[in-house]
Design a protein that fits this description.
The chain has one domain. It is 84% helix and 0% strand. Helix 1 packs antiparallel against helix 7, helix 6 runs antiparallel to helix 7 and helix 7 runs antiparallel to helix 8. By secondary structure, it is an all-alpha fold.
């Protein structure tokens, strides 16, 4: 820890403050949360499940949930490959640090500081892996609940099960979004390898881009 300078500590504070602050603000502020793309998609997933409950042929619905699981599985698998590369860099930290220092934008760092930078990336993508695999498991649960929606009987009974499927799908989608957000901040953390000021700038750029996509994008306007 003694290898961290004051600017490194400030950069880390801005990084974690941006990541945690953005996530908590969006999740805990009701007025802000209701205006997001995520909230709009929650309602569309609910409508989808209610429509599914009134259909006899549900092949399309199974294909949709399969596509969602495939994209989630892709990111979860990718995080494993990223972790494998980071573990290899950590095992040969001295060599990888010397190689990076030869690049035009590389800065010479102490072995301890270099290992801290790699450890930060490891922490981020471990979180991404656990979040995405939990999202994948919830999509699996959702597919089972969808399969339990009866095709006959009162519509109200079918819609009751469909509402449960929608709630599970919405939770899965929110965990998927959280895992994807970890990827964005993982890319920002790469900037620390260049310079602490680059980490601060990258963190703020990621927050700005997340806000623009979730609250100011054309997709949001179309959904609302």
């Amino acid at each position: 820890m003694q290898s961290l300078s004051r600017i490194d500590w400030i950069a880390l504070a801005v990084f974690f403050g941006s990541w945690v602050g953005y996530a908590v603000t969006v999740a805990r502020h009701p007025g802000l949360s209701r205006r997001s793309v995520i909230s709009a998609m929650d309602e569309y997933r609910r409508r989808w499940m209610l429509e599914m409950a009134s259909r006899e042929n549900r092949i399309m619905d199974i294909q949709i949930i399969g596509n969602l699981m495939a994209s989630t599985s892709f990111l979860a698998n990718t995080s494993i490959f990223i972790l494998a590369g980071l573990v290899a860099m950590m095992a040969a930290s001295e060599l990888s640090g010397r190689i990076f220092a030869q690049l035009p934008f590389g800065l010479t760092a102490s072995p301890a500081l270099w290992e801290m930078k790699i450890a930060l990336l490891l922490l981020i993508f471990v979180r991404a892996f656990f979040t995405l695999t939990w999202a994948l498991r919830q999509f699996n649960y959702c597919s089972i609940v969808m399969g339990s929606v009866p095709q006959d009987g009162p519509l109200a009974a079918r819609q009751h099960v469909a509402e449960a499927a929608a709630k599970v799908a919405n939770r899965a989608a929110r965990h998927f979004n959280s895992g994807l957000r970890a990827y964005y901040f993982g890319l920002a953390a790469l900037a620390w390898i260049i310079h602490p000021l680059a980490l601060i700038l990258a963190s703020l750029v990621v927050v700005r881009e997340l806000y623009r996509r979730e609250f100011r994008s054309e997709v949001r306007a179309a959904l609302l």
